[in-house]
């Protein structure tokens, strides 16, 4: 097909996707700003993803949820399941607050060896380890109002029973004592818990998930400390056949673009202590809207990360009504060598291809002649992937805009070797004065060429540059959807440009 025909074909696909979208405009999951390629709760509030685990062919995603309002409140664990990490089905609420408190963040493991005695070896229990947050204790200004508790499920996560011996890990007097992430450390045949304890991570171990012993503390003098440490995750990843351990630590506030963000450390873990191999502070995603992310358990060597697409600076105020906040696209994590150090790279999981429709490949010669490549597409889809390669020597930018003069710009600033998302003119921002800002991520790669991959959804954009070495996530709220897509290439050759419209997951 020549380029005109291809463009026509894409216009046709785009027009029919747009028509479908318009028809469904007010229906559930198709309200204004509702993301079409990302999980968000059917209605009401969400923040952190919790208890993510793969079991018997199903991915489970639990999430911090307040089912009575679209603002943060007494926390429950909502629940959703997926066969492919992309299409999600919301299930009944898994955990309700009780007399020990709200149900804060935590993790789920499959107790294959029945160490807890909650199941049997033939029918192992799924066990949730979460923080009980006692609001009365908090109000009374005590310090021991966050404790770790258990619940288990014998029917693959559909219903849950809280353990009568809760809490299993009592607070020693630390105000911020939460977000347990547990995994089976096979070498020593024990469970290991990473717990956020104010300004550090404390590691505990247990033979049975009920009795916990403190092993060590990490990080009081390392990394970023602009806010409280939350939501840790510790897991191994290989680089060139050698095993490393990665520790994720979310912090709020104090992120590189203000507010909430997630830093990470690469190093070694011996079952007791975590030792980082570099003292540099690194961030899994520099954007303002990727927080409290952790990885799915039980996925073997594959590590899939998912974060909350929000920021505590304004999460309670973003202009959605029926529901509030969503999750990032699930991301495959890998370690990469760049600029003489080891970095964590993230890219969208390959399962995203399941919803990709016909790809438009744009001719390199055609692109070279043009500075505003996609003005030819009359109407862009509401969700799509855009990819291209280019030299990293001059500025370039992708501009999404609408007829109201609103625009979102994602680009590269060559003079400062950094990528950015500029949402200063992207749409609504009066709900919070911190919202309209430019977020930057340094370019880590030293290669002369770069690749640029954008995942655009109705009200979110995720940038994965240089194979995911530089990542930025941001949400935005235009008055009307963006309908045009331009690329400013400053005369530079843009190669292998593809645009892939995505089908809605709902
Ligand atoms: C992170 C966090 C966690 C806590 C949860 C409460 O966003 O503050 O530390 O468990 O949210 O909803």
From TrEMBL:
MF-aspect GO terms: hydrolase activity
Residues of the signal peptide: 1-21
Pfam families assigned: Glyco_hydro_32C (PF08244), Glyco_hydro_32N (PF00251)
Cited InterPro entries: ConA-like_dom_sf (IPR013320), Glyco_hydro_32 (IPR001362), Glyco_hydro_32_C (IPR013189), Glyco_hydro_32_N (IPR013148), Glyco_hydro_beta-prop_sf (IPR023296)
Keywords for the protein's UniProt record, in alphabetical order: Glycosidase, Hydrolase, Signal
Glycosyl hydrolase family 32 C-terminal domain sequence ranges: 379-499
SMART domains: Glyco_32 (SM00640)
Superkingdom in the source lineage: Bacteria
Family: Belongs to the glycosyl hydrolase 32 family.
Protein name: Glycoside hydrolase family 32 protein
